[in-house]
Structure formats: C-alpha cells, structure tokens
Amino acid sequence: MGDRLDELERRIDELRAAVRRAMRARDGGTARSLRADLRSAERAWDALVSGEHPQAKQEPPRLVTVREQVHQGLRLLGATAQPRLIVAVSDAFFGGTLRSDRLTSLRRDEERSFRSSPFGRPYYLCAALTDRLSAARGLLTLSTWPLERRVVGPLSPRVDFLNCAIAVAKQRSDDERAVRLLARMARNIPGATDSGLAPPDPARVVAAARAELAVHVERDTRDRAELARRAAVQLGDTARLFGAATLSTITKEKAK
Questions:
Q1: pLDDT given for residue 17 in this prediction
Q2: What is the pLDDT at residue 59?
Q3: Conformational region of residue 98, where left means phi above 0, alpha means psi within -120 to 50, and beta covers everything else
C-alpha cells in the first residue's frame, strides 16, 4: 500500500505542477484535461487511504483497450515516440497485444472524438507538433503533457530517443523482451554498450544517454520553449493537440 500511495502522491504533485504550467501558458485545453487527470488521481488516493476496494476480488479482469495500452507505453517512456517503440514497450513491460498497424488510424479517431466532444476524455493520444505547428508524421504524445513536451524541434527526436532509453533502462526488467528492447536502443547510443554479446548494463545505458543529453538539451529546451510559445498564441484547442492544417491536408479534405 505504501508504494502505491507514494506513486499516487508523486503523480498528484506532477499533475498540479503541470496544471500551473498550462495556466501560465494560457493553454486552457491542456489545463482542463490535466485537472480531470488530477481529480482521478485524488479519488484513487482517497480510495486507497480509506481502504475502499468494493468487490475488487470478484470483478473479472478488465480488457485493456488499444488506446489504454498506448497510454501506458507513452507514460512509461515520458516522451514523444513512434508507434513501433510504443508497441515494443507495451509488449516488454505490460504484456500488450498491440500491433503497429492498429495505431495507424488511432490519432485520427482521437481527433474526431475531441471535435465531437471537446475534453470529454481524461486524456487524448495526439500528435507531436513540428516547427510549422502541424502534426509530426508518426510521432504520438499525450494531451496531458505540457506543450513543451509535445512540440519537436531539430534536436527533439534525438533528445526524446535518449530520454526513452533512460526510461526503459530504469525499469531494470529481466524479461527477455525488455532486455532485447534495451539492447536495440543501447546500440544507438555511443558508449552504452561494448562489442560483446552480453545484455547491456542498464546503469551504463543511463549514464551514456545522459552524457549525450547534456550536449543537446539546452538548445532543444530553448527551441521547444519558442515553439510552445508560438503554439499557445497561434493555435486553438484542437490544433494544439492535433496540429494546424497544412495545404496538403486542406487539399485532401476538399477531395473527399
């Protein structure tokens, strides 16, 4: 119980801080979504403290939907990610049943849901935003993240990959699938592994990733802050989550 309480309290603190950042950025849509997540976390905390677990043992296991599995994967990674990485994380750590082809239309479904009932869900799976404030191809994020984490500048793909590698390494799982995933990621980080066939040392992967991050993070943080400022000023609620329409998007829509 103690570990779960600590986890919930950390989550509540993170959400409160995120709500404040969203309000300072005048990002009302994100703030509302974050507040919904905050209320849910606080209810879970209250239930755990009061010992309210009605018929928990009698309830059958709940089927985890595709969007919930993607949400789990993104929360573990903590950064924008491509579908294939999300699928690999879901498989390695959550016993997921995701396939990359099932994620192809997911973002469009989320956008349709948002347009029909804005902020009707606690979170949305949405697109990363490019320097043109349009949707980045093949990069998913969470609506509950601040804009600075949902935009991508020139260095952001590398920075996000390194942060994802750190997140995977910190799981320290002995599961064969998790070990294989970490090994694949480590091969793309200088100094993270040697030339042998032994599984990578998670601590070494973390250290190597952080060393490279130190080179890029200041510039990337500056670029993302500027993009987030532009997005907050120029975009409405829907576009902040799913990207501004481009000329090619408009042409496709007219052709339908």
A1: 78
A2: 45
A3: beta
Please tell me whether residue 27 adopts helix, strand or coil conformation. Answer: coil
Nearest CA-CA partner of 81 in 1, 164, 5: 164
> Which structure tokens are listed for 45?
């905390």
Report the chain's C-alpha Rg in angstroms: 19
Alpha carbons 251 and 176: distance in angstroms, whole number: 46
Query: Can you give the residue ranges of every domain in the chain?
Result: 1-53, 64-244
CA 152 – CA 76 distance, rounded (Å): 19
Neighbours of 19 (CB within 10 A): 20
* Residue 196 in this model has a pLDDT that exceeds 80: no
| DSSP E strand stretches across 95-246 | 125-129, 135-142
Please report the pLDDT score of residue 247 as a whole number: 46
Q: Are 30 and 22 spatial neighbours (Cβ–Cβ below 8 Å)?
A: yes
Instruction: Identify the pLDDT of residue 252.
Output: 44
Task: State CA 74 to chain mean position distance.
Answer: 3
Q: What is the pLDDT of residues 41-69, one digit of tens each?
A: 888 878 877 776 544 444 444 557 888 89
- 51, 57, 63, 64: CA torsion to nearest 10: 30
Residue 148 contacts residue 228 (beta carbons within 8 Å) = yes
pLDDT at 218 over 90: yes
- Give all strands (DSSP E) within the chain, no chain letters: 125-129, 135-142
Backbone angles phi, psi at 224, to 5 degrees: -70, -35
